[in-house]
Amino acid sequence: MNTIKILLVDDQPLFREGLRTLxxxxxxxxxxxxxxxxxxxxxxxxxxxxxxVLMDLQMPVLDGVTATRRLCEEQADCRVIVLTTFxxxxxxxxxxxxxxxxxxxxxxxxxxxxxxxxxxxTR
Length: 123
Prior knowledge:
Blueprint: E1 4-9, H1 13-24, E2 29-35, H2 38-48, E3 52-56, H3 64-74, E4 79-84, H4 90-97, E5 102-105, H5 109-119
Parallel strand pairs: 1-2, 1-3, 3-4, 4-5
Helix pairs in contact: 2-3, 3-4
């Protein structure tokens, strides 16, 4: 089975660290990089070529919706899953319209992660 290469994008370093630690427990996942905003994410995607980008929606410099839109236009083979705190927030729908293949609630992240990765078509 191929390893799923993941880029973590969130403006909270502690959240990224925890997410990286938990994903490292899964043999099929490899976190290839981290970014603190959408601009960094676009640069790292070009450099690292991840299979999946876990993208927070509300970040400084370049927000996750705009970064997702640009990423989907530039890198058609990369899949974005947006991260959010609230599932009824309009920004989630903005992220999906921008090209994300799904979303994960930060509070339930690890219960739903496997299902979302499968929807990316990378398994």
